[in-house]
Amino acid sequence: MDPFEKIYSEYKHKVYFFVKKYIQKEEDTEDIVQDIFMHVWKHMDKTVKVPPEAIIFKTCKQEISSFYRKNKLLFSFSEHEINIANEDISDENSHEENMVKVETLLENLPQKTRKLFIQHKIENISYSQLAKENNLSKTAVSKQINKVLAFLRRNLH
């Protein structure tokens, strides 16, 4: 079994149900899930050092956001014409720049701290579950996450 097939078989249900929480229509959900795995497949060899679940769930959030943004744009054109589209494009560019900065900053963190942060913020794993899996207290997990957030706030502005 090649690496992509392994990732797909391991995460296909998790991704589907994660997307389904945010997208009502079945066909939209299936399209988004397909787009997510296409992204993972295209970028697999570029992201060797990043855990696959981090990439998958980050991509989930991006694809869901993109879906909402696209639907809002279609609606916006009929109401406010092209001005809103231009604002959204510049917002998207600045968002992409910030994401690159965040990723770079996260690479500077200790591996365990970075992993906790990604699992909590991107994969939506609770403090309780993280504490249990890592043999830590909930308070310790909370402090680690808050330290990362403070670090990001300090270095992004």
Which features would summarize this protein structure in a list?
single chain, 157 residues, mainly alpha, 7 helices
Description of the molecule:
It contains 7 helices and no strands. 14% of the residues are buried. By secondary structure, it is an all-alpha fold. Helix content is 82%, strand content 0%. Helix 3 packs antiparallel against helix 4. The N and C termini lie far apart (45 Å). Residues 73-92 have low confidence and may be disordered.
Radius of gyration: 18 Å
> N-to-C terminal Cα separation, in Å?
45 Å
- Strand proportion, as a percent range, falls in under 5%
Largest sheet: none
Show the helix and strand layout.
Blueprint: H1 3-20, H2 26-43, H3 52-80, H4 82-107, H5 111-121, H6 127-134, H7 138-156
Helix pairs in contact: 1-2, 1-3, 2-3, 3-4, 4-7, 5-7, 6-7
Nutshell version of this structure?
This protein has 157 residues and is an all-alpha fold. It is 82% helix and 0% strand.
